[in-house]
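Follow-up to my post from last week.
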Amino acid sequence: MQRSRRDFMKLAGVSALGLSAGTLGFLGQGAQAADALPTATDFAKPITAKQWAMVIDTAKFDDALFKKVITACHAYHNVPEIPGKQEIKWIWTDEFHGAFPTERPAFLADAQEHRKYLLLCNHCANPACVRVCPTKATFKNNEGLVVMDYHRCIGCRYCMAGCPYGARSFNFRDPQDFIKDMNLLYPHRTRGVVEKCTFCVEKLAQGKMPLCVEASGGAMIFGDLADPKSEVRKVLKEKYAIRRNPSAGTEPSVFYIL
Amino acid sequence: MYNAKYIIPGLIIFLGLVLFPFIKGIGQPELKIETEKPKNVKECVLKTEKMRDVHMVLLNEWRDDVIRNGKRVYTNEAGKQFNMSLTNTCMGCHENKDKFCDKCHEAVGVTPYCWTCHNISPVKKEGGK
Amino acid sequence: MIEKALKGSPRYFGVLMAFLAIMGIGGGFYLVQLNNGLMITGLSRDVSWGFYIAQFTYMVGVAASAVMLVLPYYFHHYKAYSKMIIMGEFLAIAAVIMCLGFIVIDIGQPQRMLNVLINSTPNSVLFWDMVVLNGYLILNVVIGWTSLMAYWKRVSPPAWVKPLVYTSIVWAFSIHTVTAFLYAGLPGRHYWLTAILAARFLSSAFCSGPAILLLMTLLISKVTKFDPGKEAVKTLSTTITYAMCVNVFFFFLEVFTAFYSNMPGHMDPILFLFSGFEGHTYMTPFMWIAALFAITSLILLIPYKWRYNRDVLVPALILLVIGTWIDKGMGLIAAGFTPNPFEKVTEYLPTGPELMIALMIYAVGGFVLTILWKIALEVRAEVEGGL
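User reply:
Got it. Predicted complex:
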């Protein structure tokens, strides 16, 4: 019900935009695009949670879907494509051995062995990165998200040493030249700060799902882990799901159905 | 006084250096900077005089509210609501950074680092940084 | 007293100029880093700390090691250290300044450095490290300067120095313990995640720091009239020997725990260091040299007849310093990040610019130390000559 209503709204929004573009074209390009700028009304109905969480149905992914999901995130958030070991990534893939090394996988079933796994910041309930940050530049907000305040980061990279999931990237250089098509509505980062996945906090504030979840076509489920009636809790009740390196005690909020 | 022949001239030079900007400013006309105003919109978030004084404070408050407090809507004295966003709200109207922001910033010699991350305009790509 | 630093032999000014020149060259590379970012280093997403932080860690040890003189001298009234004590305190000052320098060159946004104070965060060990390092710097400046001033004026130091000295003894342990806690509290880094890390840090500090002090003091005694005293050299070399034995012993405790338990996470970093991991063997030559040097230094130091012979002592100390430096200044950080939590290896070796920038900080330390020691030696010569 909720979903179909939102889809309808989106459809209505798109056609309205098309209409305005058609009829108001004489106002010039600037005015036309300005219509699409998020305004206060866009933030009127945010969706909130105590602890946002994600369940990834790994069997539903193939290379094309990975690409779609990763591009949806990286293109919107202006994540630069820097070659080599000083790369920056918010969401990426790895095979089972890299994704779940603490499972000590041996003689894996073919399906799991040949599958890739989508990796991103776990938005842990008890994050090591937040514990070590000397300036509160990374902190846990009241919705359970692990947030980065790039204005405050001094670039000490202590959080990168603290994170057991390799979710954080450091801007070793100015990223601007490595962003192909700048999304003008969203900032990029500066040299000398750490960055990572945000669970699309700015989309949640507009009542929308994270971009990767939207792009996944149902292969990723998102919701409030603290709410027993949420979609994620329903899925977790039905299917066995694992988390990355649970023995680190960080309580990751990203679950994987194998 | 010990070493008065060194101390007194030293003090005079020191005071001269400290007071130099004020002395130089005496009798100068008030600094007037012409900035390009938005064409389609008449009212800013706050009154112009207030914006001139506290826009940096406001931006810092917006920044902390959006990132740290999860608050994204700003209501001004007139009850009008705004999306707290430098690029999407401020720069959505003030289309020319070089003819608006830079004018004063250059005259008073400040270089805010907003633009190392935030885009200059939400709608058009600028050549420069 | 400071005027003693302004007059000196051409050799003294030559040394200062040499340090300034190195600072200048390193400073040029630092400007490149400031303008381009840490991309000029060999650091990566996987190995996000490297040579800078390793040198910082080693220098914290050197700073803390002054306590090996301060404790016997002030606590047990061991008078043989009366000539060495100020040298140790001034070395600690130079070492802490280097520590702070290594932190500054490592951070990506140095202009925001004061955020650590403005937004002070007591749950971060880095915040406490900042507190203890600056506190230790102030303690040593105040204690060292006041004692030397009193000595120069031929009076006994004011009574308030005593409590500060006792504080500095505890404080010295705290700086290296807190520095170890930077590493030991991280859930994904097996090589660091060990309760003995702080103890290992202290033991390696208490042998390498006094070894550096002793080597430099012996060098000074060759080029000036300063004589640390036979007794002092003997006792300090014995302290170094004991600390080195404990240091090596603690390392074997690590090896036992890792390999008897047979837990891969604990074994992998040690294997990476000494035999390579999945074909990555770039650290193994360094580590075997460190092991060889450490053992040789112990063989030369443990028999007291060799240890008390300066011709044996000096090479033994040099071997010890190189061995502990490789262990802490190279191996410690590399093995913390390698293999990474996903059992993959990203190779890290410092780049040329990175080494030059680190050298700049070492030159700053050398510059400060030269001036401080010059003052201390001049004051001593003046007082002794006047007696």
